[in-house]
Write a structure and sequence with these properties.
Blueprint: E1 17-21, H1 26-37, E2 41-46, H2 49-62, E3 67-72, H3 78-88, E4 95-98, H4 116-137, E5 143-147, H5 170-194, E6 200-204, H6 213-220, H7 224-236, H8 241-244, H9 246-253, E7 262-267, E8 271-276, H10 286-300
Parallel strand pairs: 1-2, 1-4, 2-3, 4-5, 5-6, 6-7
Antiparallel strand pairs: 7-8
Helix pairs in contact: 1-2, 3-4, 4-5, 4-10, 5-10, 6-7
Length: 310
């Protein structure tokens, strides 16, 4: 029986270039650092220049000689997404890790007026992937990994109410955004394979990993008690970010990953070595994937062109 998959099993990444969104902390930081350790040139795509640059500096301390750089990217603003992609024009991209996300926030909106969880977690990454598609397809073995969550099981998307305008529940909205991540992966994999491209679209989730994601919503609402409970749970129950990043790293680098694979911790979807994960059946619905894709193109103004037509 083979040993459990861990970061030492990441294949050599020399000669490959990766972008990791939200790489300044948590599983995003670990993902970016370990890709750099394996030899990849890694772009830490983050909203905050101070935090992003500090993360690059820390990674270079932990991995001497790491090829790492910061690039500004605000997923709450599609203009920022377009600027980031425009700066990348003409360059090849081997790996895009759509990692950044927000969870269980009080009702807020992105710069473009989208409900924040749907806008940041799904729409911005849909737009980013589409705008970077020419750079990805120029690579010999391109891969897109989108980070979802076991909490996608909370809710299917409501195609008629993608921005939760009828009724807002922060946890249902989060579940819908994570379902959207998986439907996007499903449809991207279907289109990329159907078009005969080498692009592999896969997904991952970290299980219950200790990051700042859990406490942000409570902090925004001023609920100090809830914030302390989340902090305590992170210390006692959650696995460390080092382990939470492993499903992403496996999906991003393992040679046996196939289109539309979904990786997560093997023990009750919460902790342990990464393995193929259960997913709700609605995340494998071709019709839902097509409808979400069409709506996402309309909302963001980003189309994937003739190469990946449905």
């Amino acid at each position: 029986m083979s040993a459990a998959w861990n970061a030492t099993r990441i294949p050599d990444q020399h000669g490959r270039t990766a972008i990791v969104t939200g790489a300044n902390s948590g599983i995003g930081y670990v993902t970016a650092r370990e890709l750099a350790r394996a030899g990849a040139r890694v772009v830490f795509a983050c909203r905050s220049e101070a935090r992003g640059s500090a993360a690059v500096e820390q990674a270079q301390k932990e991995v001497p000689g790491a090829e790492a750089e910061f690039a500004p990217l605000d997923l709450g603003d599609l203009a920022s997404v377009r600027e980031f992609a425009e700066a990348w024009r003409g360059r090849t991209l081997d790996l895009l890790v759509n990692n950044a996300g927000v969870m269980a926030l009080p009702r807020t909106h992105t710069t473009d007026g989208f409900e924040t969880q749907f806008g940041v977690n799904h729409l911005a990454h849909f737009a980013l992937t589409g705008l970077l598609l020419p750079s990805l397809l120029a690579a010999p073995a391109p891969r897109v990994v989108t980070v979802s969550s076991a909490m996608h099981a909370l809710a299917n998307i409501d195609i008629g109410d993608l921005n939760s305008e009828k009724k807002y529940s922060k946890w249902i909205a989060y579940g819908r955004s994570k379902t959207a991540n998986l439907l996007f992966t499903h449809e991207l994999a279907r289109r990329a394979t159907g078009a005969g491209t080498a692009l592999v679209a896969a997904a991952a989730h970290p299980g219950y990993a200790a990051t700042s994601l859990q406490t942000r919503g409570a902090r925004m609402e001023g609920r100090k008690g809830a914030e302390r409970i989340f902090e305590l749970a992170n210390r006692i129950i959650a696995q460390p970010a080092e382990d939470g990043a492993l499903p992403t790293l496996r999906a991003a680098t393992a040679p046996d990953v196939r289109p539309d694979d979904f990786y997560g911790p093997r023990v009750l979807m919460t902790r342990g070595a990464p393995a193929k994960s259960w997913r709700a059946p609605w995340t494998l619905d071709d019709t839902a994937g097509e409808r979400l894709w069409a709506a996402s193109e309309q909302l963001t103004g980003v189309t994937y062109g003739s190469v990946l037509k449905g």
